[in-house]
Structure to design on (180 residues):
């Protein structure tokens, strides 16, 4: 991954597309875009192969939007990051068929834990992307509250265990990573 990103950034620098001082910023941007694109593409490909494209996409949207607002722990490797996102997006799709009574209890416990941790700890500053601007932190705090309330409203309007897996599990994984 780093080899490819460095190659693209070096090509831009050698062809006078960017200056030496802009190089680290552009390199970081290329890394973020390429890493995110490959990770999401890989997860959606796995979802497609398992005939779960739309449910995996929905879980990815829930996870990524919560992650944007709440922040949290970051894996130190690309593979670790991919695995966390894969769990958050694929497992809910695979659990959709589980509609036993115990599933409702598990979902309820995960929801209560997620709401508490989100209200208590979000937004979480990480070592990788610390936020120092107070207004930005306030905006992220408000966004995380609006997001969790919106998901709760969606669960009330569409009270289905299958939808519960798609919404609550990604939120739970994200909320669990707020204080790692």
């Amino acid at each position: 991954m780093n080899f490819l990103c460095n190659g693209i950034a070096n090509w831009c620098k050698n062809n006078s597309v960017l200056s030496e001082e802009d190089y680290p910023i552009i390199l970081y941007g290329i890394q973020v875009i390429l890493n995110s694109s490959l990770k999401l593409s890989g997860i959606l490909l796995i979802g497609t192969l398992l005939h779960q494209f739309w449910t995996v996409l929905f879980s990815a949207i829930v996870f990524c939007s919560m992650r944007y607002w709440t922040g949290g722990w970051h894996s130190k490797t690309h593979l670790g990051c991919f695995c966390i996102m894969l769990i958050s997006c694929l497992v809910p799709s695979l659990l959709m068929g589980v509609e036993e009574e115990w599933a409702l209890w598990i979902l309820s416990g995960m929801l209560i834990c997620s709401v508490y941790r989100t209200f208590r700890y979000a937004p979480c500053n990480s070592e990788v992307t610390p936020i120092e601007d107070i207004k930005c932190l306030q905006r992220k705090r408000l966004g995380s509250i609006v997001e969790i309330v919106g998901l709760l409203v969606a669960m009330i309007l569409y009270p289905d265990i299958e939808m519960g897996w798609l919404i609550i599990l990604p939120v739970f994984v994200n909320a669990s990573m707020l204080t790692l």
